[in-house]
């Protein structure tokens, strides 16, 4: 049992390490965190409802999570095959496509939340 708990604590430690690695080394993540902060500021300005806040945080978290996994896929690709290869190109494009799904979802949520304020 104590081995299980120590294992879980180590996993959390590595997860937090990865979290800070993404925040300090990956420009795509840094810029998306910046956009997330802008929307957090807008949320405060427009005094969003609790549900709108929840949806906005969900959208920001979704984009950051998928972008982080996309970064991991890119790193694996660059590690296992740094040279040009059409299959690597396909894998990277598909991983980026996942980010596009998340970004379009976040865009739709932003329109639903802020559309009425802009109209
Ligand atoms: N080794 C490769 N072989 C074939 N195509 C590649 C290769 N590396 C990159 N590409 C192509 O270039 C695109 C961009 O790849 P890259 O690794 O530069 O990611 P990126 O989207 O610019 O991400 P980031 O800015 O986070 O590094 C890929 O989606 C793919 O189409």
UniProtKB/TrEMBL annotation:
InterPro entries: DAGK, DAGK_sf, UDPK
Positions contributing to ATP binding: 14, 26, 74, 83-85, 92-93
Tagged with keyword Kinase: yes
GO terms for biological process, alphabetical: phospholipid biosynthetic process
Subcellular location: Cell membrane
Pfam families: DAGK_prokar
Protein name, UniProt field: Diacylglycerol kinase family protein
């Amino acid at each position: 049992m104590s081995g299980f708990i120590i294992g879980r604590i180590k996993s959390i430690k590595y997860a937090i390490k990865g979290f800070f690695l993404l925040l300090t080394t990956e420009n795509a993540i840094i810029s998306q965190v910046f956009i997330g902060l802008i929307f957090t500021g807008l949320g405060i300005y427009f005094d969003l409802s609790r549900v709108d806040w929840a949806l906005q945080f969900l959208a920001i978290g979704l984009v950051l999570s998928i972008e982080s996994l996309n970064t991991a896929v890119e790193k694996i690709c660059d590690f296992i095959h740094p040279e040009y290869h059409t299959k690597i190109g396909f894998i990277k494009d598909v991983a980026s496509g996942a980010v596009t799904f998340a970004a379009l979802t976040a865009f739709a949520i932003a329109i639903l939340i802020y559309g009425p304020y802009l109209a």
